[in-house]
Write a structure and sequence with these properties.
91 residues, mainly alpha, Monooxygenase
Length: 91
């Protein structure tokens, strides 16, 4: 029973990367089309915290599902921050 629960938990945790990435898509799409829709200061903090989590997964807790999930979320935050910065600079 414990092994089944662990497998379900691993699958559900892996799915959070997909859900988070899909949830970021509207903001990424808006910024790509030069429509400001992200709070720049919030994404600085979110990028920093997800970056720390990703580094933690690489250095301290080398767990592949954790590395994939934290890496995808970090990448999405970095992309939004980059697009926000670019849009802010162009204005």
């Amino acid at each position: 029973m414990k092994e089944i629960l662990l497998k379900i938990l691993i699958i559900c945790y892996g799915a959070t990367a997909i859900v988070d990435t899909v949830a970021y898509w509207p903001t990424i799409k808006d910024l790509w089309h030069k429509k400001p829709s992200a709070n720049f200061h919030s994404y600085i903090l979110w990028t920093a915290t997800t970056g720390i989590a990703f580094l933690y997964s690489l250095v301290v807790l080398p767990d592949l599902p954790f590395q994939i999930v934290s890496g995808m979320i970090f990448f999405a935050n970095m992309l939004i921050l980059f697009l926000s910065f670019k849009l802010k600079k162009d204005r």
